[in-house]
Amino acid sequence: MTHFQGESWSWKLKQELGGILASSCIVLPVLNHSLSPQYTLWNFLPKNLFEQFRRIANFYFLIIFLVQVIVDTPTSPVTSGLPLFFVITVTAIKQGYEDWLRHRADNEVNKSNVFIVENAKQVQKESEKIKVGDIVEVKADETFPCDLIFLASSSIDGTCYVTTASLDGESNFKTHYAVRDTTVLCTDEAIDALTATIEFAVYTGMETKMALNYQGKSQKRSAVEKSINAFLIVYLCILLSKATVCTTLKYVWQSNPFNDEPWYNEKTKKERDTFKVLRMFTDFLSFMVLFNFIIPVSMYVTVEMQKFLGSFFISWDKEMYDEEIKEGALVNTSDLNEELGQVEYVFTDKTGTLTENSMEFIECCIDGHKYKDCISEVDGFSQTDGPLKYYGKAEKVIKLCLLLFCKGADSSIFPRVQQEEIQQTKVHVDRNAMDGYRTLCVAFKELTQKEYDKIDRQLNEAKMALQDREEKMAKVFEDAEADMHLIGATAVEDRLQEQSAETIEALHAAGMKVWVLTGDKMETAKSTCYACRLFQTSTELLELTAKMVGESERKEDRLHELLMEYHKKLIQDYGLIIDGSTLSLILNPSQDSSPSNYKNIFLQICLKCTAVLCCRMAPLQKAQVFNTKGSPITLSIGDGANDVSMILEAHVGIGIKGKEGRQASRNSDYAVPKFKHLRKLLLAHGHLYYVRIAHLVQYFFYKNLCFILPQFLYQFFCGFSQQPLYDAAYLTMYNICFTSLPILAYSLLEQHINIDTLTSDPQLYMKVSDNAMLQWRPFLYWTFLGAFEGLVFFFGVYFLFQNSSLEDNGKVFGNWTFGTIVFTVLVFTVTLKLALDTRFWTWMNHFVIWGSLAFYVFFSFFWGGVIWPFLKQQRMYFVFAHMLTSVSTWLAIVLLIFISLFPEILLIVLKNIREKNHQVRNKMMHYTVFLGRPLLTLAHPSRAYTAPCASPPSCSPPFPLQHQRVLSQVSTQPIASHGLLPSGLHILRQLWGTGQQGVHRVSSPPLPANTQQMLAFWGFGPGWLPGR
């Protein structure tokens, strides 16, 4: 038995047929690795734990937890064990849920019902229970559950028509014929009575055509995850440095006998007999445990939750819902949300992705005469003059007997026909191709019975050949198709999908380079690329095709010459066209050539081209293209099973939910109904996801550095005794409860720029490209900010404690009060820092930010025994309540919070002033008033005009010609094509000179609205202009 994973072969029968009978010679599960379940009920726990502890932070905290259990450390094992358990549990639940969804999707196919012929009757079975040799009945509009040999059909002539849209994106019906000897077996009884010995060999498993076109899925890691690992290494180095410094300084401190063994804390005999090296190692581990919270282990679970919950916003987006198929966007994996905001290259299929894959008949040309009709499919022609008559497929076989018809592209048909017949049809073909239509030429040849028998015999011999079968069959076809007569050509339109051209333009404006990978011929693909604005009319195209390279033995030398020639034209305004055979020559050159040299030159050419078209591509070649691209972030999008390898190979794979088949969407990371939805998915969702998660990562490292730096500084004042500054409860709750929800809400809801603005202005996408927010410069800024605030927290409270008595009754605060004040300032500062960063406030943000602060206060009273008296025995009893009785403490907390946040507030104010000035400058540069003399354009409001400009620069935007005429009538000098940017009424008066200023009313035509607004801004009423 075979268990199917994913979607079965989506070959569908044409609706008019009743059904077919077929034998399941091969039962092959569809290669659906991206959605196949990763876990089973039995291996989930060990396998999931193994996967999670492969992460640096999780493994590190596991080691710390074991050290706390084994070694006598200053903190309880609970402080690291509980956060680790929380992280592991939440991550396991999330991954288990996603894997359950995969199981459910697979079961929809595996449990689908099919009919098997057994014992002269139909038996209903599940698809996964089909065995090799079963006779399967497939009815109209049903999907083939496995590879089948066609035995019989309900059609009289033993034919059936299938569509392979989910495999290759082609929605047209293809004719298949039953095995000649089994055509008459059309009933269950006849099939059951079949007794035969069939000997044949077929390709199975990974040798099948579909499997050979499949590219194994590589593990996808986001750029954010790579940055996190790099930052973790830095913080691990900081941690090791702190532990080393404290361990060293501890033994320097203890070199004084009084410090090593004071009278009130004498060592035991066991401590004296312990080897010093062992004691030093134990102390080092203790300091590692004390400072281990600088590594933000809870960041991983927050990132997982942010990705998982954030993915629902894509699925819920109503603008990405398609009314035609009644479905919206789908997220198959949430691990790559932020990669949507970092895409540099987009690789797209053509048929069914950029186009609707719906052929509409436009016109045909027969013997040079053009015919137009509303018929959508042409099967045959009866005459060349007058109205067209169409034959059905079955009727054509009878009426056109012994006539050989050949159809194909003009490049394939013209060499096979009489040369004098070509010219009158070629004119129509060229015109239709320029109009963007798909053209098809048709030729015929009359065969005598003797010629037909000869071709049939040769074809049967070629089919039976054990070696070079394809070459021998091609030779028979080549000979038979010689000296044909050209009938004419057809033109059909595969219309572009709605807004596909606008989407490609937006992707280009966002800095992305778009490649089109298609199996179509170059002429058709080229016209489509012009129609969808991949190529502009001004784009100069570089061609690397078999026609350019040639078929001679020197084709590799010719290829090298072309590559070197194009390499010299490394200018951004070029487009490239390459076909599959030339690409194969580049990627797989002969042993005599230099493969790396070919590949490197080709890569440099591709990186400089604004757009690339790859035509005549095999499915596996689409995936191989990604091996030539270098290391940028790539995205691939397609709609058919032949795009699966490409989708799996890219950093981000997008599947189109087409009308036929879901292979691409099931194997993709994300699925959208139409190509136009890619615009919002990248420019809006991708941009926001990246900004949110980048801020989340930087914020976690920042707040943990603020948390641990005071603990490190405290060791210098406690004799490096490993005394904790914070209570164990605070150590445990800081990342889990006190500071986790505000950043999670921020990472889900923040919109620093409006979604409509992000979608309409693609250039905003480039501001966050190339992982801009997780580079070393912003990382160092956050690190220095955390270090500054940690110093303020500790030394601010330290100076406060210089007054030994902080209470009215003369009582002195202890070390736990000291740590609690530092912790209180810490929690309020990092939370308010996030509030300052928030630009898009919702009720959820208010709830989690102010609620987290309120919860901290509540917990402190609870833990101190104020609310829950049973906790009065622990060391924090009434510490928080006593702390708040001091006015000095209140003032210190407020002052330290303000000092800590002051640099951030100052930067925000300066940034707002700079942005406001930039907006004013852009507004003033946009409005230009033309005067009656050539004047120098003023570019800044603070600059005063000094003298006329002899040859001033031209200004933009140009003033309308009709208004130039109006100004000429009210001015003593002709209007120049140069402008003045006024910075105030006083500057205008300087321009006209003393006593020459005046105003003239403009009656007709009216000034543009923006010009009137500008004049009103400078003090002139509506309809008025300054003049001489």
Automatic annotation (TrEMBL):
P-type ATPase A domain segment(s): 112-173
Enzyme Commission number(s): 7.6.2.1
Main location: membrane
Source domain of life: Eukaryota
Pfam families per record: E1-E2_ATPase (PF00122), Hydrolase (PF00702), PhoLip_ATPase_C (PF16212), PhoLip_ATPase_N (PF16209)
Occurrences of domain P-type ATPase C-terminal (ranges): 666-913
PROSITE patterns in alphabetical order: ATPASE_E1_E2 (PS00154)
Cellular component per GO, a single term: recycling endosome
Subcellular location: Endomembrane system; Membrane
Protein family membership: Belongs to the cation transport ATPase (P-type) (TC 3.A.3) family. Type IV subfamily.
Protein residues bound to Mg(2+): D349, T351, D639, D643
Protein name: Phospholipid-transporting ATPase
Keyword Magnesium: yes
Cofactor(s) the protein requires to work: Mg(2+)
Ranges in coiled-coil conformation: 445-472
Organism whose genome encodes this protein: Athene cunicularia
Keyword tags: ATP-binding, Coiled coil, Magnesium, Membrane, Metal-binding, Nucleotide-binding, Translocase, Transmembrane, Transmembrane helix
Keyword Metal-binding included in the entry's annotation: yes
